[in-house]
Prior knowledge:
By secondary structure, the chain is of the alpha/beta class.
Amino acid sequence: MGRYKKLTILHSNDMHGDFFSEERGQETLGGASRLSGYVSKVRSEEKNVLYAIAGDMFRGNIIDSEYQGISTIEVMNMISPDVVTIGNHETDYGLAHLLFLEKCAKFPIINANLFIKSNHARLFQPFKIIEIDGMKILFIGIVTEEVLANTKNEGLIGTFVDISEAAEEVGHICNTYNAIDIDYTVLLTHIGWEEDKKLAELLDPAWGVDVIIGGHSHTFIEEPAVVNDILIVQAGTGTDQIGRFDIEIDTEKNCTHKWEWNCIQINEKTCPRDEKLEEVIDSYKNMTDQKYGRVITRFKRELTHPDRYRETDLGDLFADILKESLGLDVMLLGSGSIRKTALGPIVNLQDLMEVFPYDDSIHMVTVTGKQLKEMLLYMLRDEAFEGDHTEFYQLSDGLHVLYNRSTHKMEEFTLNEKEIKPDDMIKLGLQKYHFLNLDIGFNKKVEELESTEKSRIIATSCRDVLEEYMSTHQHLDRKNEGRLVIKK
C-alpha cells in the first residue's frame, strides 16, 4: 500500500430544492438531472470519490413545499450522496417530520450538536466514518443555535450555544475516534463562511481536522480559505455549480499532502443528464402544475428582489399588502422570506409559493418609537453589509429611515412624514419566525416588547393575505421608493 492516496470530494450546500435547469443566455445551467449526471461521471472516472452536502437541501420550490421534503429526499436518494449534514431549513417542516424524512433517506444524515434537553440524547448520528481504498475518512456535522432558530418552536430541543462549544464537541469526537487511525477528517458545517473561519481558529491542530465544507451564507469563492492549516470551502447556492476537491492524502501523517479545488459549473457541455431522475421530477411537477397553475394577478411589470440587504420592489409590495390588510402601522417583512429575485408580470399561485414559501402567522406587538429605532439600528449594524448572514427587513409604506453608516446614526426617522418620537406607540407586524427570534433579528426579548401590551396573532397565514389581496388587485406596482436610504 502506498503512503499517498488520492481522494476526490464533491460537495454542495444550500440546494434549496433547485431541481430544474435554467436558460442563461446561450447556456443551460444547473438542475438536479445534470448535477446527478456530473456526480455519476466523476464516480466512473475516479477511483475514490465521496459526495457530501452541507445542509439546506429543502425549501425553494413548490414541489418541496407540497410534499414537505419527501420529494427532495427521493431526488437525493437517486443522486446518492455519501454523507449529509442538516441545515436550518431541514427543520422547516418540524423536527418530528425531519426525523421521519431521515428514515426515508438512503444516505446518512449527521449532526453532532442537536440534542434533547432533558437527557442530552443526540437526535442524529454525530459523525460518519467512511472506509474507502483502505482509508478511513471521518465526517462530523455541525450547526449552531443561532442558525437553527426554528428549533425555538421545539421546547425540548437544544443545540450547543456557539462555535466555541461546537469546537469542544469536535475535539471530543476527534479524540475518541482518532485512536482507530482516522486518515482524514472533514467537518460538514452549516453556520456560514465567517463562522467557519472562526471555528477553524478554535480547533486544536492535534485533533486532526483537515477540511471544513460549509454552507448557510451562500458564499461563492474562487479558492479555499486556509485558517489554522484547515482548508475551508463552500459552493454558493443551488445546483448551478458543485465544489470539487482533488486531494492527495498522506496516510502516514493523516493529513493533506497536495490538493486542488475547483468550482465546477453544471451545464449541458460537461454534465450528462440523468434521465431516470428527470422522470421522477417531472411526475411531481405535473401534479403540482395542475394544482397551482392558476393565475392570481398581473403586475404592471416584473418586480425584483435582487439583494436581501436593501429595499426592493417586491419587498415593498409584500410589506405594504400585509400592513394594509391587517391594519398595522408598520410591517417589517423578513427579506430572507423572499426566495427568488423576481416575480411577474403574470403571477400564478405556484410563482407566489416559490417566491414566498414560508407561510407563517403574523404577530402584532405594540412598540415604542424608541424600541423601533433600536431594532432598526441593530438590523443596520455593520455586519449586515460585510458578508455576515444577518437578518434584514423590508419596510412598509409610510416608514422612512435615513441611516448614516459612517456615524451609525439615523439622520431621518419618520412615519407618515412625521418624526417618530421615543414615546410614540406603534402597532408593528412581524412574521412568527421573526417574532420568536427577536434576539437574533433585533437584539430584543419578547418580554421587553410586551411590557406595555401583550402581542397577539392577527393572521394565521401571511401567504393567504398576499394571495387574497393580489387576486382582487390587478396591475400592482412598486418602485424602490427610498423608504430605507443608507449613506456610506
